[in-house]
Amino acid sequence: MSCQHTVDVGAYLFGSLELKERSAFERHLGSCDTCQAEMLRLAPLPGLLGRLSLADVENLDEIPSPPKPNHHRRVLILCAAVLAVLALAGGVLFLKPPSAPTWAAQDQATGVNASVSMVTKSWGTEMWFTLHNVRPGARCKVMVFDRDGQREIGGWWGSDHAPDERIPGSTSFRLDRIDRLEVSDESGPLVTLRP
């Protein structure tokens, strides 16, 4: 099975998509197994490329060409390549990412119902919110508090969205260091989410 959006995965990973394109792709990514598999396959590339120094890139044309392999060596290389492809295919087909922890809460005073799925990343934590009963036209934000009392804003969004739409957020805090998430709008706190 293929998807026309798999070409967007690389642009997404390297931060080349415009804000609207990024939001649309993130919504698509939540429901497309093909794009999710491509994301898993390509996810290491930005980190690997980030390890290259300017000298490495400048000297790419100075890499010596390998010696010509003999027939026996070609057969071994071909077998190794086939095994690598089979291992990669098996990993993509059978490797499922661990399920993301989900926190949920409903505030009795405001009536706002919220849940958040969180994914550990090398840079911190990715968050995906769903919110219900938020006043239309509100400008919402999430404040992330860690266990040491530090805090940072994890995202801003407008409340005029479909009820089932997942809203992205992020924080530099590691998942195991997050104490709570507080969602608010201009009128004040709407709901607090905890593990």
From TrEMBL:
The chain crosses the membrane at residues 75-95. Keywords: Membrane, Transcription, Transcription regulation, Transmembrane, Transmembrane helix. Residues 9-36 form the Putative zinc-finger domain. Gene3D superfamilies: Anti-sigma factor, zinc-finger domain. The keyword Transmembrane helix applies. Coiled coil: none annotated. Pfam families: zf-HC2 (PF13490). InterPro entries: Anti_sigma_zinc_sf, Znf_put. The keyword Mitochondrion does not apply. This is Putative zinc finger protein. It comes from Lentzea atacamensis.
